Structures are given as C-alpha cells and as structure tokens.
UniProtKB/TrEMBL annotation:
<dbReference type="InterPro" id="IPR053540">
    <property type="entry name" value="BABR_hydratase"/>
</dbReference>
<protein>
    <submittedName>
        <fullName>Bisanhydrobacterioruberin hydratase</fullName>
        <ecNumber>4.2.1.161</ecNumber>
    </submittedName>
</protein>
<keyword id="KW-1133">Transmembrane helix</keyword>
<feature type="transmembrane region" description="Helical">
    <location>
        <begin position="35"/>
        <end position="54"/>
    </location>
</feature>
<dbReference type="Pfam" id="PF04240">
    <property type="entry name" value="Caroten_synth"/>
</dbReference>
<keyword id="KW-0812">Transmembrane</keyword>
<feature type="transmembrane region" description="Helical">
    <location>
        <begin position="94"/>
        <end position="114"/>
    </location>
</feature>
<keyword id="KW-0472">Membrane</keyword>
<keyword id="KW-0456">Lyase</keyword>
<feature type="transmembrane region" description="Helical">
    <location>
        <begin position="66"/>
        <end position="87"/>
    </location>
</feature>
<dbReference type="InterPro" id="IPR007354">
    <property type="entry name" value="CruF-like"/>
</dbReference>
<feature type="transmembrane region" description="Helical">
    <location>
        <begin position="168"/>
        <end position="190"/>
    </location>
</feature>
<feature type="transmembrane region" description="Helical">
    <location>
        <begin position="134"/>
        <end position="156"/>
    </location>
</feature>
<dbReference type="GO" id="GO:0016829">
    <property type="term" value="F:lyase activity"/>
</dbReference>
<dbReference type="InterPro" id="IPR017823">
    <property type="entry name" value="CruF"/>
</dbReference>
Length: 289
C-alpha cells in the first residue's frame, strides 16, 4: 500500500487541516522569514523595477506581470497572516463589498477618466480584465488597512472617536498615494492624460482617492473589530511589515527618480513605524545566522 501523501510531507490528516491550522502555518511562515519578506523582497523589487524602466533587463523579465504580482503577494503575507484570525462574517461582507466597489470604480476610472482623471495602464499588473487588474484588491486593500493599523497605534486613545479616527485614516491613505502614484508614473505603470502638477500626477487623482479612501476606511471600520485589531497588533510583531516593505520599495523608487516630496513622505511613514516600534524587522535573514 503506497504511503499517505500527507504523512510523507509531514502534514496532518485532511480532517485536521482546518482554518486554525492554516492560520498557524502562515503565521509561522511569516515569523521565520520576516527579513526576506519585509526587506529582501522590496529591495529586489525596487532593483528589478528600476532595471525594467531603464531597459536593462531582457524583454521577458522587464515588468513581467507575474513577477510583479508574485512579489506583491509575498510582501502582503504579513498583513494577511495578521488579519486572518479576525476575519468573521461581517469582515467578509465588508471585503466582498469593497472588492466590488474597487473593481467598479477602477473600471469607471479607466473608461471615463472619473473620478481620478483620464489615465491608462502602461504595464500589466498581472492578469487584466476590461483594462483592470484582476488582482486589484491585492494592490488596494493593504494600502488602506496598513494606514488604518498605523493610525490606531499612533492615535492611541484618540482613535476611540470616529470623528478623529476616520478623517485621520483617510488623510493617511491619501498620503500613501502621494508616495505611490509618483513612483508608479515614473516607472510607467500608468500615466495620466496631459500629465500632472505633482510629479506627473494630476490633483484630480487625489480628489478621487479621498472618495475611494473614505469608502474603504468606512468598510474596514465597520467590518473589523477595533479592539480585536489592537489586541492582535500587540501579539503580532510582524503585522505592519507590509508597510515596512512599502517604505523601502517606494522610497527607493522615488529617490531614484528624484521625487523628493514622496521620499520625504515615505520617511514620515518610516518614522511612524519606528515610533510605534514596528520597524523592528530582524537585521539578518535566518539563513545567514
């Protein structure tokens, strides 16, 4: 009788491979590979993106959509592992509704130019459907959720008031895009018709981001238990490692193109991570120890 594949791989019996087991495995994977995920991947990603923009890579590798998507997914793992235990029915409803909104508003933006201003993608960010990245939530959701978590930590008791919490998080999400969009435009990920005053980005884009950020922040605020999030943040040191990756990757890209205001904003996010004791990624990967 051939051996059971699960036993050969050291896996538990199928009936034991439940959600709790998967969450524990993902948690352990991230904990033991923090440096690789939070530092090596964004540094490598920045180098590959810049080499692609400068036409230093073979065509098959330059802005390869699968490399881009896989790299982004890996850098998102700390956030996914951190939030996964908190995703209940309400959170699932919020995520599904927000995904529908994200696809809808992006399709409207690509086809009509509203509310962000006329733009088009210059690089395929993974599979594209109707001109919209199929993995759009993977790109958009973490920008909002990272901002939400960082603001909860920075605001402390002030975060209890929605009149403080919500506008501050919305403003932070827009500030994140003040870092992201100029770097993405410089790389050629997308471009705006007629360019724009802020490193090739029109101010209409940020008006649109106020709308999208408000919708997304409200959805997360409704769908996620804030007290449970704070408790998880206390017990999960890597939960904001994706924000660490964001600072490294987009800070480096903007610096390479001389976009110094976005670089300074990335530095402010890095400062926020330091202040909240979240910029504590181990200094060496475990395979160098």
């Amino acid at each position: 009788m051939p051996p059971d594949p699960t036993e050969a791989l050291g896996l538990p019996a199928p009936e034991r491979m439940d959600r709790e087991w998967l969450e524990a495995r993902l948690d352990r994977l991230v904990r033991t590979n923090r440096f690789t995920i939070a530092v090596v991947f964004p540094v490598t990603g920045a180098a590959l993106l810049l080499a692609s923009a400068l036409e230093l890579l073979p065509p098959a590798l330059a802005f390869n959509p699968w490399l881009v998507l896989v790299g982004v997914v890996v850098m998102r793992l700390p956030l996914v592992a951190g939030v996964a235990p908190l995703v209940d029915r309400e959170a699932t409803v919020a995520l599904v509704a927000l995904a529908a909104y994200a696809y809808g508003i992006e399709y409207v933006g690509v086809t009509t130019g509203q509310p962000y201003g006329p733009f088009e993608y210059g690089v395929a960010l993974g599979p594209m459907v109707g001109g919209v990245p199929l993995a759009l939530p993977v790109f958009f959701f973490p920008l909002v959720l990272n901002s939400y978590l960082l603001c909860l930590l920075l605001l402390g008791d002030l975060a209890r008031s929605p009149w403080v919490r919500l506008p501050v998080v919305v403003g932070t999400v827009v500030a994140v895009d003040l870092v992201l969009d100029p770097g993405a435009v410089a790389l050629g990920f997308w471009s705006y018709e007629g360019g724009g005053a802020f490193y090739g980005v029109p101010w209409s884009n940020y008006r649109g981001w106020v709308l999208s950020a408000t919708v997304a922040v409200a959805a997360f605020d409704w769908g996620l238990d804030r007290e449970a999030l704070l408790a998880r943040l206390d017990s999960c040191p890597f939960m904001l490692d994706d924000m660490v990756s964001f600072v490294i990757l987009w800070g480096a890209v903007n610096a390479a193109f001389g976009n110094w205001i976005p670089v300074a904003l990335a530095g402010l996010f890095g400062t926020g991570l330091v202040v909240t004791d979240r910029f504590d990624v181990p200094t060496r990967p475990r395979w160098m120890k």
